[in-house]
Amino acid sequence: MQDQDIYHRIAELVEEEHALRDGQSDTAEGRGSRLTTVEQTLDQCWDLLRQRAARREFGQDPNEAHARDVRTVENYQQ
Question: Comparing C-alpha atoms, which of 35, 28, 50, 42 is closest to residue 74?
């Protein structure tokens, strides 16, 4: 997956996130569950972009970066 593909996926997810926040879903329960999934997937996408950039910076192949599991990404300390 190339950076452009990841950015495209992020744009799709952000659009869906906005729709969910605006209440454009069947039920509040379904909306909340899907919103959580969308937010986690966005975090994974941003993490993957950061990994790819770091690999390029240090002369490594960015294509060897991979999406990390949600638990890893969600538990980062900022």
Answer: 42
User: What whole-number distance in Å separates Cα of residue 68 and Cα of residue 15?
Assistant: 23
Say how far apart CA 52 and CA 59 lie, in whole Å. 11
Percent pLDDT > 70 in the chain is: 90
Higher pLDDT pick, 78 / 13: 13
- The sign of the dihedral angle between the CA atoms of 66, 69, 74, 77 is negative
Six token digits for residue 37: 């999934």
Q: Name the pTM for this structure.
A: 0.87
Tokens representing residue 41 in the block: 């997937």
Sequence ranges of the domains in the chain? 3-74
Three-state DSSP string of 30-60? HHHHHHHHHHHHHHHHHHHHHHHHHHHHCCC
